[in-house]
Design goal:
This protein has 5 helices and 7 strands; from the N terminus they run E-H-H-E-E-H-E-E-E-E-H-H. The chain is globular, with a radius of gyration of 16 Å. It has a 7-stranded antiparallel sheet with strand order 1-7-6-5-4-3-2. A hairpin with a 2-residue loop joins strand 6 and strand 7. The chain is of the alpha+beta class.
């Protein structure tokens, strides 16, 4: 999955917000909660645990617990170059994933480029081509709200809209 977003906030503010994956539930409708499981500050080796699933939070909340399908998604920061790059990697029994977020100044705001790779493991690899369309949809749903989440979390500065 690949997307490019423009956010009317400074690169430093955008980087601080998106590199802290505890904020993921604020933009990703399929992330129900997130915690940092290592000590501050965030940097290479920082680990996060996200609780999520294929269902959006609104649908998830309506279902009985037995049908919710929560999954723990561990992430570890593997690249960290503030304020321009953060990459996180994780793995579960069924998937391996890698998210890479690049940030640069553009037109008085920030250009955020989000690349995500997901690979199914074991026998599930057979279904990977069919899963690609779903993954593209999940990626769009997870990243399109990032600008609004940053705008809400980071007050506008004197030189920003």
């Amino acid at each position: 999955f690949h997307t490019s977003l423009w956010i009317p906030r400074s690169p430093g503010d955008v980087f601080s917000f998106v590199s802290d994956f505890r904020n993921a539930p604020r933009w990703d409708p399929r992330t129900y909660s997130a915690a940092m499981v290592t000590d501050e500050p965030i940097g290479i080796g920082t680990r996060f645990e996200l609780q999520g699933g294929l269902l959006t939070k609104s649908v998830h909340a309506e279902l009985p617990a037995i049908l919710r399908g929560n999954e723990t998604l561990p992430y570890e920061v593997v690249e960290f170059d503030p304020p321009r790059l953060v990459a996180l990697r994780g793995e579960t029994k069924t998937t391996r994933y890698h998210d890479r977020i690049q940030i640069s100044e553009e037109r008085g705001g920030t250009r955020l480029i989000y690349d995500a790779e997901l690979a199914l493991k074991g026998l599930l690899e057979i279904g990977e081509p069919a899963f690609q369309l779903l993954f593209e949809r999940i990626g769009r749903d997870a990243t399109e709200p990032i600008p609004a989440a940053v705008i809400q979390a980071v007050p506008s500065g004197p030189n920003l809209p």
